[in-house]
């Protein structure tokens, strides 16, 4: 048996084990539809759902891993049953450089044009 947080980290769903643990304790990860603790045992056939901003990803455990492995091996350890990623999450966001201050009137007009607003009320 493998801990849920260790499995999430070893199949590369989370960058670090501590991030996986925080996600499980924060209620963002469910095992077979139920909220569980990070130390809960995972077995093949279990369904793991991971909430991300804007959508929920669904995985089926195929193989137990207790150590972090290469990406190609990690992808074989689960089946991805996630719905397609929503299109609004793929749209690039306009960002300002840190410390650039408030946008000028010219910047605001450029942002409005980018967002599809023509400027009329």
Automatic annotation (TrEMBL):
<dbReference type="GO" id="GO:0043023">
    <property type="term" value="F:ribosomal large subunit binding"/>
</dbReference>
<dbReference type="InterPro" id="IPR025708">
    <property type="entry name" value="HSP15"/>
</dbReference>
<dbReference type="Pfam" id="PF01479">
    <property type="entry name" value="S4"/>
</dbReference>
<keyword id="KW-0694">RNA-binding</keyword>
<dbReference type="InterPro" id="IPR036986">
    <property type="entry name" value="S4_RNA-bd_sf"/>
</dbReference>
<dbReference type="GO" id="GO:0003727">
    <property type="term" value="F:single-stranded RNA binding"/>
</dbReference>
<keyword id="KW-0238">DNA-binding</keyword>
<feature type="region of interest" description="Disordered">
    <location>
        <begin position="76"/>
        <end position="121"/>
    </location>
</feature>
<feature type="domain" description="RNA-binding S4">
    <location>
        <begin position="2"/>
        <end position="66"/>
    </location>
</feature>
<comment type="similarity">
    <text>Belongs to the HSP15 family.</text>
</comment>
<dbReference type="InterPro" id="IPR002942">
    <property type="entry name" value="S4_RNA-bd"/>
</dbReference>
<feature type="compositionally biased region" description="Basic and acidic residues">
    <location>
        <begin position="109"/>
        <end position="121"/>
    </location>
</feature>
<protein>
    <submittedName>
        <fullName>RNA-binding S4 domain-containing protein</fullName>
    </submittedName>
</protein>
<dbReference type="GO" id="GO:0034605">
    <property type="term" value="P:cellular response to heat"/>
</dbReference>
<dbReference type="GO" id="GO:0003677">
    <property type="term" value="F:DNA binding"/>
</dbReference>
């Amino acid at each position: 048996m493998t801990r849920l947080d260790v499995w999430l980290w070893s199949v590369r769903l989370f960058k670090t084990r501590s991030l996986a643990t925080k996600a499980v304790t924060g209620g963002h990860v469910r095992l077979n539809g139920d909220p569980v603790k990070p130390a809960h045992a995972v077995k093949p056939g279990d369904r793991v759902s991971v909430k991300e901003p804007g959508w929920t990803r669904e995985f089926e455990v195929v193989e137990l891993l207790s150590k972090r492995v290469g990406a190609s091996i990690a992808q074989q350890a689960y089946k991805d049953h996630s719905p397609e990623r929503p299109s609004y999450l793929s749209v690039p966001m306009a960002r300002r450089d840190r410390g650039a201050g408030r946008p000028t009137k010219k910047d605001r007009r450029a942002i409005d044009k980018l967002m599809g607003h023509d400027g009329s009320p």
